[in-house]
Specification:
Elements lengths: L11 E3 L7 H4 L12 H17 L3 E4 L5 E6 L5 E8 L13 H8 L11 H8 L3 E7 L3 E8 L3 H14 L4 H20 L2 H13 L13 H5 L3 H11 L5 E7 L3 H11 L23 E8 L4 E8 L9 H14 L5 H9 L3 E8 L7 E9 L5 H18 L3 H17 L4 H14 L6 H9 L3 H10 L6 E9 L15
Parallel strand pairs: 3-7, 8-12
Antiparallel strand pairs: 1-5, 2-3, 4-6, 4-7, 5-6, 9-11, 9-12, 10-11
Helix pairs in contact: 2-14, 3-6, 3-9, 11-14, 11-17, 13-17
């Protein structure tokens, strides 16, 4: 929930690392950079932005409808290869929640050509690394490899798109792994339990109310046919986007894509119903009691998302507001509530602006000894109210936007970070071609726009509060099962 200096990635479940945070996927600004003067940093960022703009990503679509995006970066002889499917937890229905993530696990369980586990063995033998992750909005698979091995990666990925093999025995083994993953990463983690409950209460109709890993009872009753049906309906080239970044040439990637994926037939992909969320009409609360060292509180406000880079000024202003509150070391929440007033052990803000569905702006914190969660609620909201009442000085706004834009630029330091950024944008319906324009638009946000959103969106009517009431710690959490260590 920390550091919202850029639109964060949605909650992700990964086969190997099911709770990777946005910070783990996108590099933080180099510490030395933060010591530069604003003027020098602005010039450096502008130079980086212009350099990125000079080599825009290439884009083409195969005859079967599969979109391919290629971003050249010749600094090292490596490549990130990703295949994104526009299908995730939000497309599930009651009774089969968690099937998107369960299918992700099955994608490593063999094809007509490969035995279970052989996919990962082959990638490792070639010196690469691979993983997969599921979010509410999408499911994605990737490999990072030396550039000459890209054809091998495409062959492997195309094989499991078209020829995945399902057996009852493998599914029954793997669904047990998924259930254990849920126990270890949600049921035994008090903060994760808080957020599961928060989403279940904040969304009354929208499928974001379901956890990506699924409800335990649904997992217990899931069958291999559920996973097979999910793959048959949604894993199609015309429902996928391939992203390749690194030491590549677009025309060569096109040739390889046509060779390995071009022969896979398109499918009539079902259109999922929108399930729009009705307007909230009053504050909602949920309390979770769980063994924990400290109490915790999270306040989730329903706010606009970023759908149109040119028109959605409020989303951009909310992103800047999140950075003012919790986007750098001396941001307001930490400076005021943790270091000055000492009423909180931690305090933060986050805003995930880019998503297929509706979004939340979250304030959260751990109260210090002598402070209650109810008091911390008021103190967190008071910092937003102060922005609404007093506004933001031009000097603070300039400093904050520098941090925000820096975080956007530094996501491009890694080849994998570039692929993640492109894929996330595409899955949300915002073109990757607007990444540089997004940075420009963030730089144009005014103090009055920030003050306006702080005044408009932080009342009770669209607020859900989740509180952790700590119970005694009976014992230390057990180590995760060996099968979850990767």
């Amino acid at each position: 929930m920390r550091n919202s200096a850029a639109p964060l990635l949605p909650a992700i479940l990964s086969r190997h690392h099911p709770r990777q945070s946005a910070q783990a996927l996108a590099p933080s600004p180099h510490p030395g950079m933060l010591m530069l003067t604003n003027a020098l940093l602005f010039l450096l960022l502008l130079a980086c932005s212009l350099a990125a703009s000079a080599a825009p990503a290439a884009e083409f679509t195969l005859k079967n409808g599969m979109k391919v995006i290629v971003k050249e970066d010749h600094r090292a002889p490596t490549v990130a290869h990703m295949v994104w499917y526009r299908i995730g937890g939000m497309d599930e229905v009651n009774g089969t929640t968690g099937v998107a993530h369960a299918l992700e696990h099955m994608m490593f369980k063999g094809t007509k050509k490969l035995k279970p586990g052989e996919f990962s063995e082959r990638v490792a033998a070639l010196g690469g690394r691979e993983n997969a992750f599921t979010s509410r909005d999408y499911t994605a698979y990737f490999q990072q490899i030396e550039k000459s091995r890209l054809p091998d990666m495409m062959a492997l990925e195309a094989d499991r798109m078209a020829n995945l093999r399902f057996t009852k025995a493998e599914f029954e083994q793997e669904i047990k792994v998924v259930m254990e993953e849920r126990r270890w990463r949600t049921e035994d983690k008090p903060i994760q339990k808080v957020y599961e409950a928060l989403h279940a209460v904040a969304w009354s109709a929208h499928p974001y109310r379901h956890p990506v890993v699924g409800w335990m009872n649904d997992l217990q009753n899931m069958t291999v046919e559920d996973a097979r049906a999910w793959h048959d309906r949604f894993y199609a080239p015309n429902n996928a986007v391939m992203v390749v970044t690194g030491d590549v040439v677009p025309e060569e990637v096109r040739r390889l894509a046509e060779k390995y994926f071009g022969g896979i037939k398109r499918k009539p992909v079902p259109v999922t119903k929108p399930q729009l969320e009705p307007a909230q009409q009053g504050l909602r609360r949920v309390t979770i009691k769980a063994p924990a060292e400290n109490p915790y509180v999270a306040l989730a406000f329903k706010v606009p998302k970023l759908a149109d880079v040119e028109k959605d000024d409020e989303a951009l202003a909310l992103d800047v507001l999140a950075t003012i509150l919790d986007g750098y070391d001396n941001a307001r929440l930490s400076a005021q509530l943790v270091r000055t007033q000492r009423v909180a052990n931690s305090a933060g803000a986050s805003y995930d602006a880019i998503a297929r569905g509706p979004v939340l702006f979250i304030l959260d914190g751990v109260p210090a000894q002598g402070t209650t969660t109810e008091q911390l609620e008021k103190l967190l909201r008071a910092e937003v109210e102060r922005v609404a009442r007093e506004g933001v000085s031009e000097s603070e706004l300039k400093r904050v936007k520098t941090q925000l834009i820096a975080s956007q630029i530094y996501k491009r330091d890694s080849i994998f970070g570039q692929a993640m950024e492109i894929g996330t944008m595409e899955m949300s319906g915002v073109s990757h071609r607007l990444l540089d324009r997004l940075i420009e638009r963030l730089g144009q946000v005014s103090a009055s726009q920030v003050q306006a959103v702080a005044s408009k969106y932080f009342g009770d009517d669209a607020l859900t509060i989740a509180t952790l009431v700590p119970l005694p710690l009976s014992q230390k959490p057990a180590a995760p099962p060996a099968g979850l260590r990767h």
